[in-house]
Amino acid sequence: MSLTRNDPPVAGVADGARTASASLAASDAEAIGREVIAARRRRSKRDRRKFLAVRLVSLAVVFGAWQLYGMHTIAILFAPITTVVHSGYNLFAHAQLGSQLGYSMWTFAIGYLIGVAVGIAVGMLMGAYRVVEAAVSLYVFALYATPMVALVPIMTLWIGFDATAQIVIIALFVTWPMIVTVFHGVRQIDAELMEVSRSLRLNRRQTWVHVLLPGAVPFVITGATQGVAMGLVGVIIAELQTQLTGLGAALQTEAQTYHTAGALAVVLLIMVLGVTLRAILGLVQRFLVPWMRLDRGDGKRR
Amino acid sequence: MTAMRAASDRGAPAERAQAAAAAGPGRGEIRCSGLYKWYGQTAVLSGLDLTVANGEFVCVVGPSGCGKTTLLRMMAGLAEYDHGTITIGGEKVTAPLAQVAVVFQHFGLFPWKTVYNNVALPLRAAGLDKAEVRRRVAEAIALVGLEGVDDRYPAQLSGGMKQRVGLARTLALRPEVILLDEPFAAVDAQTREILQEELLGLWSRHRQTALFITHSIDEAITLADRVVVMGTKPGRVVDDIVVPIPRPRTVGSVRRHESYAPLRERIWEQLRASGSPT
Q1: Which among A69, B45, B149, B228 is least surrounded, fewest beta carbons within 10 Å?
Q2: Could you tell me the pLDDT band of residue A298, with boundaries at 50, 70 and 90?
């Protein structure tokens, strides 16, 4: 950039800068834009690969340590991962682990859905109406703070030992944290947005449909995700404390007959179940809450 | 956006008066008399009287805590007043009125709705038929220069674009009265001036009654026919100044006008005397 001698330097610099930016033809600017976007994409791809690698290394280290320790200890106490997987396969192939898993999943599904549905309904009503909160929040928070295990013996007294009792127990595990999460979520919906709704003269039904329900969706999903873990706890406790069925029965049988590898296989299966269900809910969230994963400016990424 | 500039505020004062008369006697007139509001022991507003004529653009400036936002919320039917009356177009305000629309400081957009659906929501809620909703939304979105982004979510927009959506939603409602609560406070200085000029252009099309709350003296002078200065403890009107700068205006033409500096000085003095301006 050359300055004209008579120009004051500052103006010269400004002019130069303007010329420099103006000299970029539209096509050049577009090309640079494409290049920047491509570089950003490469970087994020590299990052994804890096984290995937870290995860794989971590898995290798943990399973390797498990394998080594398992091979050098007493079989009654622990078993190497290969033995555990093999036992798991045997339980599926030669015992009833398949049908036991099916039974547990069935009770879990029903109990979980009831717990989630009750949680959404009570949580939303508590959040939206102070009267409902005043009427029921005391009991909700008291039960939320109570370990649900304490209610299991009482449930068996009231309902008995069958599948119904198990489903009620699972629902109880799921519903309290669900209510509390949804309640806080609805309360958090921006006070300004509620004011906007009034200003736009939405009636009660429209406020629910357009503001309260969609606003609560992220919190419902958070609650439902926590609920997966709570519900799985509920399943195992229900099956161990009422009648021995499903995965609880498999676990109990294996452990009591000193088939440690088999017991560990059942535990591993429960873990996989939990992780899978959470992943599914993650997908549901991406589908139901598209506005939350959109960054400003870079368009739709679906 | 260029379309908006082109529709810059035209119209001689005589035409303006004619248009105001054609709109009927005071459909958009705001009349506050003897307004009182207490928060606990503190009087937020104490016997406030304020009239905004039909088609007039009034800016309210004042220090924090002078009750200017409270005043706007009362006019919007969003806050109660303890004593006195507010009427808009002769109708007493006790709830949000149909002919009044609010532009909010933090935009007030629903994050789960696209630009299009944010603008369309109040129209659908009011029961307009589908074709009419589509027509009005398209028109409003074009007016504020948001064509092509109507399927985006608010999270994908800059602050300036978000407030354009807020304006579009308000315009689509075709209100007689627009209440604006520091609408440009959350955007950067340059965008703010651009939005001010756009607002002038949009307002000049229909000359709705406008009440605009701001902290900025420059903004008030740029936009208003009249600047109302509020004082604090308790909130009251301390000055009421006609801005003699002719329209159409631009940010630049206002700054260059001979009355700009003395006006600015006078408002600044009033604010300094009545409490710390922020």
Answers
A1: A69
A2: very low
A297: left (phi over 0), alpha (psi -120 to 50) or beta: left
Cβ A67 vs Cβ A82: under 8 Å: yes
- Looking at this protein, which amino acid is placed at residue B26? G
Tokens of B265: 């000085």
Name residues whose C-beta falls within 8 Å of residue A266's C-beta, 6 or more positions apart in sequence. Answer: A88, A91, A97, A247, A250, A251, A254
CATH architecture type of domain A81-292: Orthogonal Bundle (1.10)
- Interface touch B153/A290, C-beta < 8 Å: yes
Residues 6+ apart with CB under 8 A from B146: B115, B161, B164, B165, B168
For residue range A204-246, what is the model confidence (pLDDT) as tens digits? 999 999 999 998 888 999 899 989 999 999 999 999 988 888 8
Cβ B98–A206 below 8 Å, yes or no?
A: no
Supply angle C-alpha B221, B244, B63, rounded to 5.
30
Query: What is the phi/psi pair of residue B92, to 5°?
Result: -70, 135
Task: For chain B, give every residue range classified as CATH 3.40.50.300.
Answer: 23-99+175-278
Measured CB to CB, residues of chain B less than 8 Å from chain A are 76-78, 95-96, 98, 101-102, 104, 106, 108, 110-113, 121-122, 125-126, 151-158, 169
- Cα B158 to the center of its chain, rounded Å: 21
The question of ipTM being above 0.85 is answered as no
Length of chain B: 278
CATH architecture type of domain B23-99+175-278:
3-Layer(aba) Sandwich (3.40)
Q: Where are the domains of chain A?
A: 9-71, 81-292
Which two tokens mark A121? 């309904």
Q: What is the pLDDT along chain B (278 residues), one digit of tens a residue?
A: 344 443 344 444 445 445 544 545 578 889 998 888 888 878 888 888 899 999 899 999 988 878 888 899 999 999 988 888 999 988 899 899 989 999 999 999 999 999 999 999 999 999 999 999 999 999 999 988 888 888 899 988 988 899 999 999 999 999 999 999 999 988 888 889 889 998 998 898 889 899 999 999 999 999 999 999 988 777 778 889 998 888 888 888 888 999 899 999 999 988 887 765 44
Residues in chain A within 8 Å Cβ distance of B110: 193, 196, 210-211, 214
Burial class (CB in 10 A: 0-12, 13-18, 19+), B162: buried
Pure H helices in chain B:
2-6, 13-22, 68-75, 115-125, 130-143, 159-172, 189-206, 217-223, 251-256, 260-274
Residues of chain B positioned with their CB less than 8 A from the CB of A211? 110
Query: What does the pLDDT read at residue B278?
Result: 45
